[in-house]
Amino acid sequence: MPEQSIISALVLGIIEGLTEFIPVSSTAHVLLAGHFLGFESPGNTFAVLIQLGAILAILLVYFRKLWEIAMALPTSGKARRFVLTVLLAFLPAAVIGALAHDFIKTILFETPMLICIVLILGGFVLLAVDRMAIRPKYTDIMDYPPSLAFKIGLFQCLAMVPGTSRSGATIVGSLLMGTDKRSAAEFSFFLAMPTMLGAFTLDLYKNRDLIRFDDGIVIAIGFIAAFVMALVVVRSLLDFVSSRGYAPFAWWRIAVGTAGLVGLLIFG
């Protein structure tokens, strides 16, 4: 296995873990970095499969809360309603993602210029929403009504376009509909669990014939790096957005998108 592939996989795994749960689009970062590193993955499987590391990281961080919810299901209507809200929010992306999977992977994922433009536009949207003086009506994810969750799920579908950001779309949708910044980020964590696991499973099935032994080693390296970095991010993000908001991520998106456009224009 080329040493360059190992180094690239490590770098991309670190990028995946650092960006998966913040509103900057991990897919855009991984695809753009892979483009400039000359990293090739049949069917773009690497970008999705290393997300399993980030999934396991968030499951580990939230294991206790997930266990408490699971144990409360037989007796607590609040726990059952919360599970329903997450499933309702997941439903739109599950349907659209399954139907449009091939178009997303073969067309949208292969258009770096589009990714950069969406990064920049999404940055300005996030900046504008972060500055809005919206008085929150919902501050606890356990109190989100099912109708609100479904609407957040519709926003999540915007992330089918690489560069939009799954967490960014759900957070913007949540804030516009009256949630506070902290609970918006936390709900995006819970929504990420079924969404990312579903994407991982579908992509693994669709590309099972393209994955070779050497690919497995590269994916494992990226997976471990993504797992470690995602642990750090998930443990610190809620406190960060509570005190700093989302403006730093908005400016980061704009900077990365601009740098990507410049790089594409110069290097192709």
From TrEMBL:
EC supergroup of this enzyme: hydrolase
Further facts: Bacitracin is thought to be involved in the inhibition of peptidoglycan synthesis by sequestering undecaprenyl diphosphate, thereby reducing the pool of lipid carrier available.
NCBIfam families: PRK00281.1-2 (NF001389), PRK00281.1-4 (NF001390), undec_PP_bacA (TIGR00753)
Catalytic activity annotation: di-trans,octa-cis-undecaprenyl diphosphate + H2O = di-trans,octa-cis-undecaprenyl phosphate + phosphate + H(+)
EC numbers, comma separated: 3.6.1.27
GO biological process: cell wall organization; peptidoglycan biosynthetic process; regulation of cell shape; response to antibiotic
Transmembrane parts of this sequence: 43-62, 82-101, 107-127, 185-205, 217-238, 250-267
Superkingdom field: Bacteria
GO molecular function: undecaprenyl-diphosphatase activity
InterPro entries: UppP (IPR003824)
Presence of keyword Transmembrane helix: yes
Keywords: Antibiotic resistance, Cell membrane, Cell shape, Cell wall biogenesis/degradation, Hydrolase, Membrane, Peptidoglycan synthesis, Transmembrane, Transmembrane helix
Cell location: Cell membrane
Role noted for this protein: Catalyzes the dephosphorylation of undecaprenyl diphosphate (UPP). Confers resistance to bacitracin.
Family: Belongs to the UppP family.
Membrane topology: Multi-pass membrane protein
Source organism of this protein record: Pseudorhizobium banfieldiae
A cellular component term, taken from the record's GO annotations: plasma membrane
The protein, known as: Undecaprenyl-diphosphatase
PANTHER family in UniProt: UNDECAPRENYL-DIPHOSPHATASE (PTHR30622:SF3)
